[in-house]
Structure formats: C-alpha cells, structure tokens
Description:
By secondary structure, the chain is an all-alpha fold. It has 19 helices and no strands. Helix 2 packs across helix 14. The N terminus is likely disordered. This is Cytosine permease.
Amino acid sequence: MDKNNEQNFAPREFGAVESVPASARTLSFWDMVATWIGANANNGSWYVGGVVAGTAFAGSICVTMIANPIAYIIMALIGFMGFKVGTSTMALTRASFGVRGSYLPSLLNTTQFIGWTAVNTFIAAISVSFICKEWLGMPAFGEPGGNTTMLIGIAFMSILHLLSIATGHRSVKMVERIGVFLVLFLGVWETIVVLQNVSLEAIMNWQPPADKRMPFGSAMDVMAAFSLGWVPAIAEFTRYGKTKATATIAPMIGANLALFWFAFVGIIATIGMAITTGVYDPNYSDPSTIVSKLGLGSVALLVIIITSTTANAVNLMAAGISLTNITNKISPIISLWLVTVVAAALTVVPLYLSSFLHSFILFLDYIGMVFGPIFAILIVDYYFIRKGNYDPAALAECRGKYWYSNGLNKLALTVWVIGVITFLLLHKQPLFANSIGATYPVIVLTGIIYYVASKLQAAAHVGRAAKEDANAN
C-alpha cells in the first residue's frame, strides 16, 4: 500500500480485523498514559477499593499492590500484540480460537464492557440524583421517588457517552485529554478531605465487623477481575500507538497510577465513613454516596460524572469494536452508538435489584471466570506457540491458516472450558479464598494445559504426516 493510499485511511475508525497502517497511528505516549488514567481513575476504582476495604486497611493495600500490577503486565503483553499485528484484541483471538471461534470471546467481551458501562453509569447517575436534590429539590437515590431521578441521571449520562464516542478513538482521545486533569483534581481533593476528617492512624487501625470481613483471597479475585476487565480493550488503542513504548509502558503507567490512587481513596473514604458513622456497609462505598455524606457539594459530584464519562469512553470503544469482529455488516461508528444505547437500557436493571454490591461482585466473578483462561490461551499462542508470528491478512480469511475445523480451533475452546470449570471448582475453596484467590492460578494452569496440548497435537500431526509419507514410498 503506497503512502497516499495509507493517508486516506487515517480519518476513519478501523474495524476489529482491519490492520491499522503506520500513517493512521496517531496516539502518542502521553495520549496513551492519559487514556488509561482516565479509564482507571473512576467511580469503579473507588468502589472496588471500598469493597476490598473489608480486608481492613493493610489487607486492602496488599491486595491492590499485588493483584493490579499482575493484571497490567498481562495487559501490556496483549497490548504489544495489538501494536505488532495492528488489529483489535478480539481479532487477535482468531489466531488461537479460529475465525468463528473468536466470536465467543467477542460476544463475552461486548457484554462485559456494556456491563462496565452500566456499572459506571449507575454510580454517576447517583451523583446526578444528589445534584438534582440539591438544586431542584428532587428525591435522591435511596429516597422515595428516587428511581425517577435516577432515570433522568441515566438518560443524561447516556447522552454524554454518545458524545464521547461520536467519532471513535479520536473523540475518546479528546475526552481523555480534558478529563485527566479533572480526575486528578478530584483524587487530590478527596484524599485531603478524608484525611482531614479522620486520621490515617485511625484508618490503619480500623477492623471490619466479623460478619462483614472479606477473605484475602476473595478480595484478590475481586481486584484481579476488576483490572483484568480492561485487558480486552487494550489493543483497540495500542494498534493506534506510534511506538512500542506507547503500546506497553504507557498503559501500565497510566493504569497502575490511577488504579492505586483511586482504590486508595475508596479504601480510606469507606473506612473513614465507617469510623465516623460507626457503621461499615460496603453497599454504600460508591463515591457519590460518600461525597454526599462528607458534604463535599456539587463540584465533587460533577467531577464524578466526568470520571464516569472518561472511563465509559474506553468501555464503549471496546464493546463496539468487539461487535465488528462478529459481523462486518455494521460500521464501527454505528456499532459504538448501538452498544451505548444497550448499555443505557441495562443500567436501569440495578434499580430493581435488592443489592447493587451483590450484582457487582457477581459481575466481577464472571469476568475472572471467562476472561482469565482466554488471556492465558492468547498469550501462550502468540509468544510460545507462534513465536510472535501472526499474519494480519489471514485473520480475515475464510478457510485460511486460522480456519482450523469449520472456523473453530476445538483445542483452544476445550482448554477454555477446562479453565472455566477449574475456576468454578476453586473459587470458593478455603485454600484459595483465604490466600491468593483462584483467578491467577487458573490463568497459569490454563496456559500450561494449552501449551502442552498444542505441542502434543503438533507432534501427532508430524507423526501422521511421516507415516503417510512412509506408506506412499
């Protein structure tokens, strides 16, 4: 492809399987850092910090410092794959799962990012409800009639989301550039305010009630799943990166920095409120409720709304582009708008459930269960089986090298099922629930099984070919 033709591609959004040419790679190192700060410095990071606060201060800090860097190393490995091959994360799964087999992770991915959008939108809508109460006297979330105000908040947030992804990765880049400064402002402000109200010593010495204490391994699974949830989105951005460092180092810096900070704010804010009120209830560890109870006013609530927009721009980008891996009959932009509308509808569901926290933890369990084995297979296939050699053109070919059997790599799908079942078996076992959790052990085990099975399968093929040659001679 000549230079002039490549430049013609630059203004548009690429579909999942299309390899992005060098001339269309417009994201700089600091654009990527800002993107992943904006993605992780959000309501969800704060909320998950409040959830793992059930392990007390020391336990929650250890969980945060252990679980997240591992997840973001996995993200960097897959981000590099996206940079080298130029396609989306879900298109990369075509090489290991088969062209049609990749539809499974793509469908799972679309649903999980729509789910994340709904989670962040719901928390932001709580902020909108508190603002409506302060400015207009309307009932806030949790009060009689508050559901109507929440529906207004959900509609308002959905309009912001449509604007944020209106032109694909270019509008997302602008949202993240603007939002990162407001996000950092909120982080500094909340940290100062919490520590002015409750001493750090009191927070460090606080212990949760026995009936609400979270086992360390369970907290590891929650935090690991939270951070791993971003991994399927990484190649959607690193394929637009200008350099290798943009695709690997920049996301790790942005993601780790923002996650550590905002989870820390969530931890100390939740514990601080528990000390102040005498009641620890992780159901109310969301930032909107805490900001309201601490009396920080509308400005803080408005910044929470903005952080939701920066995070959901990434979520919607990943969900929409994943959909184009399943069908190319929908353009990337239309796909982005479609998943935004679906996410808005899904956000209404928690209004009619008994516990948002329970739904949130079940959602994280789902992510760890289905995506951990997928990442293991993807990394082992690229780095150890294929030695970093994927053919971008063949990813879109029917009956090509990644077609396998009717478009399915039955070996990869079988190993994935084994990984999911293993997670279900180990997840609640005391040995794992009280120590390291099941997510990362299952990833390692799945990778080993896939590597060994692939080598045995390759050896069997060689043996059959040698036998056929001998018979022919």
